[in-house]
Please model this.
Amino acid sequence: MADIAELPSPAEAEALIRERVQALPIESRPLASLAGAVLAQSVRSERDQPPFDRVMMDGVALASQAWREGRRRYRIAGTQPAGLPPMRLDDAETCLEAMTGAVLPHGCDCVVPVERITVDDGVAVVDERTPVEPFWNVHTRGLDCREGDMLLVRGTVLGAPELAVLASAGLPRADVHADPRIVIVTTGDELVAPDEPIEAWQVRRSNSHALRGALNLRGFQRVAEDHLPDDRAVLGKRLARHLATHDVVLLTGGVSMGRFDHVPSVLRELGVAEVFHKVAQRPGKPIWFGIGPSGQTVFGLPGNPVSALVCLLRYALPAVYGMLGARPHAPEHVPLGAAHVVKDGLWHFLPVRIEQSPALGLVAMPRPTRGSGDFVSLLGTDGFVELPPGPRELQAGFIAPLYRW
Ligand code: AMP
Ligand code: MG
Model:
């Protein structure tokens, strides 16, 4: 067995994964299907933003010069709604009603909100204490960005602001990396589905549901499932099929040293090139990673539920984002809310709950499990932090990267 010192650290394992994963093809998709996708093109602003001097409040548009000269009463000469070409203010004794989102009428340079005026027989009377000045309540043309400015680059994960920017650039479609076809393959003769009768010595299958949940929550929807027995022949046959039809194969179980842990050898026989087996971490040390004959990403995640979920978040998700060409993003860093002892020379993934502390602000409160089979203790936690190898005692305030469930 490999000495701990020879095993990659989590950061080294992540770097190996990033180096090896292969890019998914690029496709053009309509805007409504792009949430969470990774952009494979750049996007420049179609126009100045805002594209015209935009009225920011419902009120009356007028010339601030008239205000400075002492005028407080303005005859309402018309109404400027949103979506119509600009009207013109003909003389400084008048104003134009103007609606939020309208173009500022010619001859006006500010908008007095309705709350500041009273209307008396077609005349707007402006409250004396109103702070009228040029461009008051006007969002001036080009203030946010100019036509042609680079707004989005390749590798950007499309969230709400990015989708708004795409739409505002007049793009009904965009080039993104194809959604990965993912299959979760659980293994183990002792495992029984949630809807099947169960014997006292059997265990419910939960990993596929936890992993699928974490993937679905991040927008990955093309997730298939299979469950296989600890049988070399069956594993070989079914995994060959899954490799042929998926970009990402996530196995759980069967990667340890047990007599029925066939996964690594079966994968090798199927031409999946091993990149690493085992990482210097707890839990999840037996994790296996390789690249399939046509570039598939293949993980053998340990079967214990805490290990499987932690390894999915720490390694498999970054692998998928790598295949999508997403720029790597650093995890959040959070101080520990209490001291924690790391007992051995492995990196530790410690479940935590994010809480508000009077002294330190947001902190990660340690919520250790009773081992990697204890997924019940994950209830009420928000994720896990990655702690450096011990033996050592980490004090409250020690800052660690946080991975949310
Ligand atoms: P293995 O890695 O196959 O040795 O499995 C380690 C432990 O995790 C065993 O106690 C298994 O019963 C349990 N386990 C494996 N797969 C699952 C699963 N899909 N759902 C729940 N527990 C599992
Ligand atoms: Mg097993």
About this structure: DSSP finds seven helices and 28 strands in the chain. The helical segments are 10-20, 64-68, 160-168, 207-217, 232-245, 263-269, 305-323. The first helix runs from residue 10 to 20.
